[in-house]
Design a protein that fits this description.
By secondary structure, the protein is α+β, with helices and mostly antiparallel strands. The chain has helices spanning 2-17, 42-48, 71-80, 103-112, 116-125, 142-157, 187-193; strands at 26-30, 53-55, 60-66, 89-95, 165-169, 175-179. Helix 4 packs across helix 5 (116-125). The protein starts with a helix and ends with a helix.
Length: 196
């Protein structure tokens, strides 16, 4: 039983990041298409119309594409919590559901909840390495299934289907994509790099 648990845990880590465990996070910077002061890249435009759940009301917008059963996403969620308000951030959580058989149903439960942010928070607070996300999965409505397909298409448009994927517009007017965990990057410095 213990060996099965450890094997499941190791496989899930590799799947979530899409990287060998020893490899650092991948980062890419895409040049903005127009003036640096506007959300002007095609990817950021698509994200602004995605199905996301906001946390915080600050001017610095960070998109986080995540799977409810992803251990790395869970770590990034926890790292964000104490920094959102002090650093004036708004995190827009973009759920996808593809890592495990229950991922789609848990992502659907988030989007269909009366309070989607509370559902995401519950999923993360009750996260464990046996059942992963703490939400109970539901059968998604056709509209929710379509919304989650749209979110997954946006993730694939980044070039790799890795979760978590963090995306923002930098102070230099470029679209920054961070795939997997932060690696050597510090969450505080990432949030400070986001354009207001």
């Amino acid at each position: 039983m213990r060996m099965r648990y450890l094997a499941t845990w190791a496989i899930s880590l590799i799947l979530c990041a899409g990287l060998p465990l020893s490899q650092p996070a991948l980062a890419a910077t895409l040049p903005a298409q127009n003036s640096p002061g506007a959300e002007n890249s095609a990817l950021l435009q698509r994200l602004s119309h995605a199905h996301w759940v906001p946390q915080g009301k600050g001017p610095h917008v960070l998109y986080m594409i995540f799977d409810p059963n992803c251990p790395y996403c869970h770590v990034v969620f926890d790292e964000l919590q104490p920094l959102i308000k002090p650093l004036g951030a708004t995190v827009r959580y973009v759920p996808v559901g593809y890592l495990t058989p229950s991922s789609l149903g848990k992502a659907a439960a988030m989007l269909e909840a009366k309070d989607p942010l509370a559902a995401i928070t519950k999923n993360e607070r009750e996260f464990n390495m046996e059942h992963f996300g703490g939400l109970q999965e539901i059968l998604p409505s056709p509209a929710t299934e379509k919304a989650l397909e749209k979110n997954l298409a946006i993730l694939r448009a980044t070039g790799q289907s890795i979760v978590p994927t963090l995306i923002y517009r930098s102070r230099q007017g470029k679209t920054v994509i961070i795939r997997g965990g932060l690696g050597k990057r510090d969450m505080r410095s990432v949030l400070r790099d986001i354009a207001p």
